[in-house]
Amino acid sequence: MRTLPVRLHPRQDLRGALASILADTGGGAAFVLQGIGSLSVARIRFAGKPEATELRGDLEILTLAGSLSSDGWHLHITVADAQGRVTGGHVAPGCIVRTTAEILLALLPENAFSREPDAESGCNELVIRPVAPPGGA
């Protein structure tokens, strides 16, 4: 495992920026260990709901965690609004950084993640496969 601290800047799309960072590292598996910062737009999909809900305003990221791969994501976020109300759920595309997002990634070069149908859950779930080290088994 290799850790990678990153800082996202105003107006960056949270998921898009993380996708670019993962692609730039050449990795196929990573976890977001933690994230804090702020958003001007949060798009959050609540449990059991098919569509994301959009929140706008001065939003503080209280937590950000999940798994990343080139073919699927599972990110959860909690945010607080200017009145201190807390909302959380699945990160959807369109979360826009307001001032900063400080994120700690754990890159896992010895693994490959994919999302594949799971008969038991009925959803695409995480599948973890080992990756052979360069130059041998």
UniProtKB/TrEMBL annotation:
Domain PPC: 1-129
Taxonomic superkingdom: Bacteria
Keyword line: DNA-binding
GO molecular function, one term: DNA binding
Annotated protein name in UniProt: DNA-binding protein
